[in-house]
Amino acid sequence: QSLVMKLLTNALVVExxxxxxxxxxxxxxxxxxxRFTATVRFLINLxxxxxxxxxxxxxxxxxxxxxxxxxxxxxxxxxxxxxVRDNSKRLDVDSPGGGLAAEFAYMDIKRKxxxxxxxxxxxxxxxxxxxxxxxxxxIAGLECNIQVSSLPVVVISSSSQVCSAWASxxxxxxxxxxxxWNLSLFSNPPPLSWQQLSQVLSWQFLAAGQRGLDENQLxxxxxxxxxxxxxxxxWSNFFKNESAWIWIDGIxxxxxxxxxxxxxxxxxxxxVSRERTRVLLQEKCTGTFLLRFSESSKEGAISFxxxxxxxxxxxxxxxxxxxxxELEFMSLPDVLCSYxxxxxxxxxxxxxxxxxxxxxxxxxxxxxxxxxxxQGGSGYVDxxxxxxxLLPLTPHSPTMEMNAEPETMELEQWFEEMISDILTLPAPP
Amino acid sequence: QSLVMKLLTNALVVExxxxxxxxxxxxxxxxxxxRFTATVRFLINLxxxxxxxxxxxxxxxxxxxxxxxxxxxxxxxxxxxxxVRDNSKRLDVDSPGGGLAAEFAYMDIKRKxxxxxxxxxxxxxxxxxxxxxxxxxxIAGLECNIQVSSLPVVVISSSSQVCSAWASxxxxxxxxxxxxWNLSLFSNPPPLSWQQLSQVLSWQFLAAGQRGLDENQLxxxxxxxxxxxxxxxxWSNFFKNESAWIWIDGIxxxxxxxxxxxxxxxxxxxxVSRERTRVLLQEKCTGTFLLRFSESSKEGAISFxxxxxxxxxxxxxxxxxxxxxELEFMSLPDVLCSYxxxxxxxxxxxxxxxxxxxxxxxxxxxxxxxxxxxQGGSGYVDxxxxxxxLLPLTPHSPTMEMNAEPETMELEQWFEEMISDILTLPAPP
DNA sequence: ACAGTTTCCCGTAAATGC
DNA sequence: TGCATTTACGGGAAACTG
Lengths: 429, 429
What we know:
The structure is a homodimer.
Chain A: H1 2-9, E1 12-16, E2 29-31, E3 36-42, E4 54-59, H2 61-69, E5 81-83, E6 89-90, E7 92-93, E8 100-107, E9 109-111, E10 131-139, E11 142-149, E12 154-156, H3 162-175, E13 192-193, H4 194-209, H5 215-225, E14 232-233, H6 235-239, H7 244-264, H8 274-282, E15 288-293, E16 301-310, E17 313-318, E18 322-323, H9 324-327, H10 332-338, E19 340-341, E20 351-352, E21 356-357, H11 358-362, E22 384-389, H12 404-424
Helix pairs in contact in A: 4-7
Chain A binds a DNA duplex through loops.
């Protein structure tokens, strides 16, 4: 009997499914009031247990017990939750393997009315909770109690907290192999080595955009995150106030939603400082550009910088970053394709750094050719947005006369274009 | 006593407040599960009633009674709802007038589990319900019951039903002066005269954009709505399947959100057929344009049409309509300001019909001048979207050679522009 | 007053009912 | 099956609460 018990104690395995559709890659975060699904599997293939194992999910089971017992008023406690319905289910035969399993669908937790001593000193996303599945059964006249718990779970009340909750999950994931499971981990969170953290960060990008971070990108992030002389990163620096994580998470979201293709193909250098951008570009020929993430926007935004040589000097310009809202309307490849400068609408972007012709890198993603107007049956004239900048130096600004040289160049270019246009025009009849 | 009773019977007046913030101008629509507020006022200024009048809101009070009494199984019934909490309140002194009043905040209805005979043959937005406020009190040993009801209320479960619900409210409003209150109005809805309907429609535009509909606009709508030979409009034509109302409501929403200014100032002709647009514009000089609502989009969209004379022929073009989603990014005035055509980015819009220079009509709403690049401290180059169309006839399309004449014109214009540009350039040093 | 947290609720999408 | 209606829930904003 004792052997059976021991086997059973470790016999249930929990596979958690996502809380929300947008959290497909983010398990271990539960939003109160939003349904989630978990599957419990009985690993010992004994058909005689069929219909014997009635499993009940309990939220924060051991925490309850501990509080009811010894340390009732001794310390502050986490928020308390419970399941809104009775989700008990009997394990049944699982089609493929023949083992016993049950899918707990429509699980849904609700916060209990706050207890008087329920005043945690960590943020809600630093509370770690557990979902435990318990079952009691008789075998050979003996009563057995077995149970299995989920990995630690962060409970949020609004989707605006997903970003913070995910930071906790990452931190916990990196520490769990070395530390014993400790639900109060964040009351005194141990630091991570940059070694460890950089690896998790790279995984995030792999998950979001099918490509991790390269050495240069990680070097730039290392500066942002704040690594101490011993190569350690502290939780409070990584996550708390105006931290690097919120910025990085915004960019992950940007990639997931609008830049998967370009990120996967490595066309986005992304994490590169403004200064380094200048250094890289000024060596390259006019029209060379690169894509980098805005360092100021917490929402995730992407800009491009390009170089223009005139008069022996290299000028590096950077466009106002594009936000998610803008990319919803026009894909980044289309922006790059049509971006124009000056009153003559010249195209300043030619080569993706180091030297890939723009259309080779992005051509396959252009939504359609500007040169072939759509003739829909609708009778409406098709149109498309073109993003245009007036650089500080333009032919029409007389206040800039001290910079007359580049203007002369523009004028020359313009005549060239004009001649070329005339040559391609059909001859008047 | 009888006099007092009679006075009291009509003594309570209900002032309903909006269900939802976006329904500020749309009372009489309640969404299940969304809180609303109502104020009940006791019109007789007798301070001795203070704290005597405990008023309770009841949903569909008389309907309940009628059903419990006689016609229980006789006919189909509307959906049933009730208030989720006890909202009883005592009337108290109302600060300004000194009269008795109470504000019922946090009222919230919930659908009852469906009764077996609850199968109405009208749509949910055609069911008319009532909120009734009842009070019982003793005066001089006599028990008095008084009550007052709201105007009929449409109960919806999703904000996607607001459009349909509002159609019912309008129809009811136009009929209520002549018909006795009838909650089953829509089981056999009487027609409205076009006279009446056109007035309500005009009011909708007055409410949404501070300007009603003029005669020409109403004439166009008359055709859309479908008026019978006797000048009557039937509910089923106005509202049911692919009806005019859904289209009109989309446009009202477009105006409310993005076009209030232009609509108020009468710069949007809006309701004008494509044919009439052609007739109006071809008489006018090149560059004259007008704004009209898309007739095909159910979502509310606006297009502009302009005329170009070349070779003695008038060509009227219309741009692909702008949707709400697009106007969120770029205001219509900015679109009009920057809209360009052809590879030379010429501006085809000059005069708002009949002859108002574009900048006079829209200039004050341009978000900023394209000619003065913003020099933010951010170090980023400002940019803005310009909408560009390639008309079927362009200098670069050799397949169009039979229309060579307009191209020659374009070429001439282009040289003119070039000369003018050269003249305004600062002289090379 | 304020920041962290929760609630509210529109608008869209998906699910459900009929 | 298709349409009518309801439910689900992300996302932004307001409201709450210490």
